Amino acid sequence: MDDYRQQQVEALQVAHEYSAKLINGIDNVLTELKGNRLLDTDEYLKEIVNGINWLIEVTNRTLEVINENEVLIDKERVNDAINEFGAALGKKDDEQIAGALETGVLSFLKAFEAATAGY
Q1: What is the dihedral of CA 61, 66, 70, 73, to 10 degrees?
Q2: Nearest to 78 by CA among 101, 110, 102, 104
Q3: Is 35 left (phi over 0), alpha (psi -120 to 50) or beta?
Q4: Which 3 state secondary structure label does DSSP give 18?
Q5: Helices (H), the chain
Q6: Alpha-carbon distance 96 to 68, whole Å?
Q7: Which of 40, 55, 97, 109 sits between 20 and 30 A of 84, alpha carbons compared?
Q8: Could you give the CA distance from residue 118 to residue 84 in angstroms, rounded to a whole number?
Q9: Is residue 6 pLDDT above 70, yes or no?
Q10: How far is it, in rounded angstroms, from Cα 42 to Cα 25?
């Protein structure tokens, strides 16, 4: 295995472990966004956004490995989900943010987690 591919595989291993934590964090922040807002909800959401951005970066750099044998992650669907999430964040609408997280973002993260389970 060449060095670059080895680095991609290592990144996927680390990202796989992190994705489970991120999914758990999103589940927690969803409760807050749906009416149980706390003083630190915005800060928590900011950390979630940072985590999502990091996983997107890893995905972009490793997509050829993830989709090597079959398309497990559709880049266009991920882009659509992230754009919807970004628009909701821009509106600062908790209900829309929660909806975008629940549908597109969590779907992406669960697909990523499943796709990287073997690394």
Answers
A1: -70
A2: 104
A3: left
A4: helix
A5: 3-33, 41-66, 75-91, 94-100, 106-115
A6: 34
A7: 40
A8: 30
A9: yes
A10: 13
Closest CA to 26 of 91, 99, 77, 86: 99
Query: What is the Cα 116 distance to its own chain's centre?
Result: 13
The pair of structure tokens assigned to 85 is 């999430």
Q: How far apart (Å, rounded) are the C-alpha atoms in residues 8 and 63?
A: 9
User: 85 with 59: CB under 8 angstroms?
Assistant: no
Residue 40 identity? D
Residues 94 and 34: their CA atoms lie apart, in Å, by: 7
Q: Full-prediction pTM beyond 0.90? A: yes
Q: What angle do CA 119, 115, 58 make, to 5 degrees?
A: 75
pLDDT in tens, 78-93: 999 999 999 999 999 9
| 8 Å CB contact between 88 and 97 | yes
